[in-house]
Amino acid sequence: DAKTTQPPSMDCAEGRAANLPCNHSTISGNEYVYWYRQIHSQGPQYIIHGLKNNETNEMASLIITEDRKSSTLILPHATLRDTAVYYCIVRADSNAGGTSYGKLTFGQGTILTVHP
Amino acid sequence: DAGITQSPRHKVTETGTPVTLRCHQTENHRYMYWYRQDPGHGLRLIHYSYGVKDTDKGEVSDGYSVSRSKTEDFLLTLESATSSQTSVYFCAISIRVGETQYFGPGTRLLVL
Q1: Dihedral angle sign, alpha carbons of residues B7, B68, A94, A90
Q2: Is the pLDDT reported for residue A10 higher than 60?
Q3: Residue in A41, A44, A101 closest to B56 by CB
Q4: DSSP secondary structure letters along chain B
């Protein structure tokens, strides 16, 4: 799976949009971009994923550049409860074949702190 | 949230003691995974299962065994716990390999 690069930390004011960047310049054509977050002492929580089109769900939006070498996770109205470590992960889909067993590789992520 | 529970949520044990952690799901997902999370290492896959009685090793499987006798339960056993196995253990499930994984709340294990 391709390697990702994220800033180690970011701050955001409550009520404002939080834009979390991720670089994945070696991404392959069959690899998806996944975002998870982990609130202190809890299990990782799935947020959103996409292949090449922008995606939106009730939690966030995912913007993927046309060349797919980077993406941005957008939390439109951050709250204090969004303070967490956010992980950007690139992994092949279920039809990629090979010996992949679906392992998720979590890097260091971005510590997002939302302040009042 | 996906219906995943882990038990116990916290455990303190002594070196050399056997320990079994349980992951239970109500989603009827075929794939189940055990990860451990340690500072500086992120999440690392220990074992995974692709069906009842079908399991395989992950990247850090030494010292661990697993069993899956029912779709809903995936057990992780430390046959003889060591201090290096002090960690937070997470279970995850997915419908198919390569699909989205959903995680349980975790078990904090301290081996003295």
Answers
A1: positive
A2: yes
A3: A101
A4: ---EEEE-SEEEE-TT--EEEEEEESS--SEEEEEEEETTTEEEEEEEEEETTEEEE-TT-TTEEEEEEETTEEEEEESS--GGG-EEEEEEEESSTTSPPEE---EEEEE-
Binned at pLDDT 50, 70 and 90, residue A106 comes out as: confident
| pLDDT confidence tier of residue A23, bands split at 50, 70 and 90 | very high
What average pLDDT score do residues A92-102 get?
57
Report residue A98's pLDDT band, with 50, 70 and 90 as the boundaries: very low
The answer on pLDDT for A99 being more than 50 is: no
Residue of A nearest to B42 (CA): A106
The answer on pLDDT for A91 being more than 90 is no
Q: Are B86 and B110 in contact (CB under 8 A)?
A: yes
Q: What distance in Å separates the CA atoms of residue B65 and residue B46, rounded to the nearest whole number?
A: 9
Residues in A closer than 8 angstroms to B42, CB to CB, are 105-108
Q: In percent, how much of chain A has pLDDT > 90? A: 75
Rounded to a whole number of angstroms, the distance from the CA of B22 to the nearest CA of chain A is 15
Name the residue facing B43 among A34, A49, A104 (closest C-beta).
A104
Contact criterion met (CB below 8 Å) for A70 and A22: yes
Q: Which residue of A has its CA nearest to B49?
A: A101
Note if the bond before A44 is cis, omega within 30 degrees.
no
